[in-house]
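Need tokens for this chain, all 316 residues.
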Amino acid sequence: MNAAKVRSIFTIVLLLLCLVGIAFYLRANQELVTLLANLSWTTAVFLVILRFLFVATNGLFLKLFAAKLNIYLNWREWVGLPFVTTMGNYLTPLSGGMLVRAAYLKNRHALSYTHFATLLAANYLITFWVSVLAGLVIMPFLWQQANAPWLLLLFLGVCWVGLSIILLTPMPRFPSEKRPFRLLNQALVGWHTVKSDRSLIWQLVLLSVVSLVLNAAAFWLSYRALDIPVSWGTAVMVSLATIFSTLTTITPGNFGIREAFISFISQIVGAGVGEGLLVALLIRGTTLISAFTLGPIFSTQLTREIRLNPSKEAEV
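Here are the structure tokens for all 316 residues:
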């Protein structure tokens, strides 16, 4: 049995275990499920809109990075690719949607997989830096309500110092045999590509802030929709769990892994582990609606785009 097949089996088994674990937890805590009765159709629509805007914001990152390489995406591409990517991530393990997006950019615009990976890694570096900084600013205001707040503050502090060193000082290349080192090398190459362009960096930072606010707004509204009163700062801290969970993408859509991160952070900041799980599932459900509504539509249009306008490399 080859390694790819083993990974696929492991992914499916882990996904099933996550589904069973969540089902047993909700069955044992049925009072949590009753909170869903507080959710109105109006709130649900607002949540879907917020998730649509959040996913679409990722397209602006892609548009800016592509323009840096003299690749100019039309609106169908930069708006549609994030929805196709999100849909693909839910349908396949190990971020299969990213591979679909990379394949489109290569076949339509001759953007190599290497360039795509480096720019994606640089995007993560900037997003993580902004997110960790936001967490450091907000955490002191949640100190009285949080459980073991020093643990989260220490984690955020170490992350911020490490990311700042990577972003502000010249870094050597690392041995690339191990996957974490390969990813770090890709991030360093991508950052080297954009760090001299201050205008681009400020645009990326601004987009990171907008993305963070949209994500936090969806979490705040989800807690409120379930009649769980939380502050804006609490919602921001819990929403950061979705950023950190991207470090370990194993199951389709990172299902189970992301819910665990969100529930853990929700418990630390005093919002409740079960309540965090319910909010995570609500966020996932509204994201699925936007992804699987627009994903197939844009997938059809972008497939047609490749067929009518393939890159010159693809024609060779």
